[in-house]
Amino acid sequence: MNLRGIVAVSGRPGLFKLVGQNKGGYVLESLDAQKVKIVANITTTKLASLEDITVYGEDDDLKLLDVFANIVAAKGNVPDTKADAKDLKAFFLEVAPGHDQEKVYTSDMKKIVSWYHLLKELPLFSEAAPEAVVDQDGVKIEDKSEKKVKASPKPSNAKAPSKTAQPAKKANMTSKKGV
Prior knowledge:
The chain is α+β, with helices and mostly antiparallel strands.
């Protein structure tokens, strides 16, 4: 399952694909049928990558990726977001066993189910997640799928030589001898 670049934006419904970044913010494209592009302000907007989202668990937190994998396995009986709270709770007990029933609210369950309904038509569930390169300490270095291009930026205070500049002329060193 590959959810790289799919984000939830605080204060906006639905999911977005991270397209790029400019000086004003993140360029996002909605995943619904309208494909609206927006620029989310870097300083005021909070983005949450679906890869990083977890669900409160009784022992350990559950990754959203694992919950989605369980929903895909349960295929036929995924409730609608407008389903009864009892149905959602029963469904969530099936797809997220071990979640903390006091901390995970019905609104959270509805949000996860609505995200699934947005993503199920996309090929994201059949794609493999890109592998990460990890060093000896288990720290992620870089992704194999991402190509890094190293650009050598020119320092802003360095001045390039002018093409029209002339080399300095030698001073005339001839002297006159007195007679």
